[in-house]
Target: Glutaminase
Amino acid sequence: MIILPFIILVPLLAKASILTPPVLPLFVRNPYLSTWLGDARDPPWTHWPIFWTGQKLGFSVMVTVPDSSTVYPLLGRPQDYLAFAGSSQVADPVYEGFQYDASCTNFTYKIPSPVDAEGSVKVVLSFMSPITPTSTLRQSLPAAYLAVSVTGSFDINLYVDINGMWASGTGESQITWDLAELVPDVSQGDRSKTKSKAWKLVRQEELLLSEHWERGEWGTLYFAGPVEASHQAGSAQALRRRFAEHGSLSNEVDGRFRRIDDEEPTFAFSKTFRLGDASARMRGPQVDEALFTFALAQNPVVQFASSRGLTMMRPLWSSYYETADDMVRYHYNDFASASALAQNYSDQLAHDAYASGSEYYQDIVALSARQVLGATQFSGTPDDPILFLKEISSNGNFQTVDVIFPAFPFFLYTNPKWLGYLLEPLLEHMLSGQYPNDYSMHDLGAHFPNATGHPDGEDEYMPVEECGNMIIMGLALANAFRYNTQPAFLRSVADAAQLSSLPDHGPKAHAWSLRPDASGIDIDSGTASSGHEHAKSWLSRSHRLWKQWTGYLVRESLIPANQLCTDDFAGWLANQTNLALKGIIGIKAMSEVSNILGEHDDVDKYAEIAEDYVDKWQDFAVSRDGTHAKLAYTWYGSWTTIYNLFADSLLCFRVPGNKSERSEQPASDIWHSGSTVSADKKTEFLPSKIYKMESNWYHAVLQTYGLPLDSRHLYTKSDWEFFAAAVTSKKTRTEILRSIALWVNETTTDRPFTDLYETETGGWPGPHFKARPVVGGHFAFLALGRACGGRAVEHLSFLDEPGAFETVDVAQALEADRMEGEAPEVADARPEVVRMEDL
Model:
């Protein structure tokens, strides 16, 4: 029996889960390696796994007991192919359910003994897409694991297969395949001597940088397994029946390359776990494992209109490994290290999420984490790393600014540098003069993976939205550098201990580079003082853009013209209250940016403008009775969620002095510390009364499954719910969180974690948003907990002071507002649309 180094890790990776979502992540690594289990509340063998679009993928797991004619399907529907498989019969295993954490999803089964009514073998399928904030190199690998653990006292046979649909989005594609042995190269520093072998699938004619039904039509799909496993390639029916009848495969490779829909070419491994010899039984139940790797190697990964022109961009991993085989070989042998780092992050995330929310919140952010990174692709070089992003499902745009913005709390919490890598291609492209407008672009390209830009300036029109987003994110990142915010991991664990070693890649060039240490761990950028210099250096390079966009906001944000905001599905609207606030916060942020850069005249100029605008905004935006904010300045009787209020606290505008001292109190403990900081008007940008007003209003308008976006509809956006809830009282925050948790448990949406849903029915509102990276907004509590050296949250404690909560009669408040708008003196004096020149 071969005992691999991950023997204890497999069943422990995922913690106990409370929520039962309709879809679970299996392999979620990038826009094209994205495999999920739909209908996850049902047994896993009753449905095929799916791509994020819902397209079924041929992927099955089953087991048999030697000398038994019974087949037990565990995942997928291989039993559909066994109707006439000789004497074999199909039976359901005992399914004990699933657990998940940020990186891993586990399914647990029991296989009954054929001779002992009380005996069984426990089988755990552990699907891991490791999130490793302290090892960007590992995070850049387009690969994921399936670890299988078995525990018991009798032998069991395992079968795992995939079909050709993993190589293309259409069954008409002709594919080729090969079986390669991956032998570790000890001379290159790989301490592990474990061999593996891998199926390699590829389209016969690759369509470079092309998609079919959102699937990449280029690159090589690797499916690797233990070298001692038996293997076979052939038709799906032949392989599955062969295993059902014999408990193993023939080690034959079908050499007839063909279309995917021609006898369904399928590629499988099988392995027998020897648990039942007499000497082993004397020692009690035995444990054995098998490890499989799934990887998608694409080179190039995208094309990008960089400062040097349209460029084919290589994957980041290609800077560390000469070939894709080398990369997959390293990944396969790195399981123990990747598991330790991923579990470290999951444990820290669970600790912080519980401290800032509840067990429900632990599950929600755990479900969200892989989905965020599943929309990204690491590229560039170690000295100039880049993180590309696809706007999955809504329209496929490339590097969409108002998709990065809702996702950015995840990156601020997990690893702030990764946010910088996301912003870099946008800044580089616009600094090079390839975008003609004086406001920020909406995206780098109409459809991923082609970032060809918009030289005609005809991208989606969200000028105030995107200018505000870029400046807010720019200052948030600079603050993370100034406060020396580290990646999220447990400080009590030495990350570099017993990790797989890497070849030497030379000295670290600068704080931005990614030359890892010998164990593949990112090297810390240094002290808080060097962090301040890093922030200054990073901001100064794009100073022209920050200032240009702020000039646009000064002209256009107080009274926004008829335009879209990020919630473009809601349509165009003038005088949007929430949008105006974003622009005003952006102007205030530029004052802070100018302070970091030593542009003292601009510090005062932009601060004065922002202060003036925020006073006017309150007059325009807030109902006369002070109970709520209107959807638009002149839309009386309406209300909206002011989720952009979150940025006011995140950017430390409420923190006196706003300097980068480190807090002595752990950020994750501040939510429950009981410490209070009274509101100080001298340090406020947005008055505390706005926070109190919104907190009380959200409590009053909350629906069964969450907080509606505004008064027009009952649908909501989950990312904005968390932005809004993060700056409310504990009472309101808890109520919103519980309503979202209830939705996760009861929703009928059947695709990966949608961010747009109905708050009363729990279903789709029309648009089917799914698998989008905007669920990074679910990390808003966590990002705020780490902001300003851990001091941001304590300056919201006034929300929980006695007397802060007030009951609001929503119907009465809206009716009073409508009557206010219909009053003759108001109606006669009010223009149809408020314009800047009318002020």
About this structure: DSSP finds 21 helices and 28 strands in the chain. Residues 9-343 form a domain with the Beta-galactosidase; Chain A, domain 5 fold (CATH 2.70.98). The longest helix spans residues 335-356.
